[in-house]
Amino acid sequence: MPLDEYYEPGEPELLAQLPPASTPDGVVVDKKGRVYVAANTTGIVWRIDPNTGTTEQAASGMFGVASMAFGRGGDFSETSLYATQLFGGRVWRLDLGVKGAEIP
C-alpha cells in the first residue's frame, strides 16, 4: 500500500488470495521484490510476484511451516530461506538462488 502525500498509508491492496484454511504464518521478501508466505496448515511456501500478479508454490511438504528468514552470511547461505516448523521442532533450508531484500 503506497503512502499518500502526507506519508499516511493509502488504501490496502489485495496482493494474492491463498487457498482457504492455509493459515499464513510468516512473510519475507527477496531482492526481486517477490513475497514468500508460509502457509502452515498446508505445508506450502507460496511465492507471490507483485509485478506480474502470479502466485506459485516455492516449496511444499513442509507441514507446520512458520517463521522464515533469509540467511545473512557466515554458515547461513544468503540465497537460502530458513523456516521453522510450528509444533514439530524442524528447521528447513530452501535454496532459492536469490538473496533476501535489504533490511534498512
Structure write-up:
The chain has 104 residues and is mainly beta. The chain has no helices and seven strands. It has strands spanning 24-29, 35-39, 44-49, 54-59, 65-70, 80-85, 91-95. The strands form two sheets. It has a four-stranded antiparallel β-sheet, with no helix packed on it. The two termini are 18 Å apart.
Record the SSE blueprint:
Blueprint: E1 24-29, E2 35-39, E3 44-49, E4 54-59, E5 65-70, E6 80-85, E7 91-95
Antiparallel strand pairs: 1-2, 2-3, 3-4, 5-6, 6-7
Low-confidence stretches: none
Q: What is the H/E order?
A: EEEEEEE
Strand content: 35-45%
Amino- and carboxy-terminal Cα gap: 18 Å
Biggest sheet features:
4 strands, antiparallel
**Protein structure class:** mainly beta
Could you provide a short overview of the structure?
This protein has 104 residues and is mainly beta. It is 0% helix and 38% strand.
Primary descriptors:
104 residues, mainly beta, four-stranded antiparallel β-sheet, three-stranded antiparallel β-sheet, 7 strands, 38% strand, globular
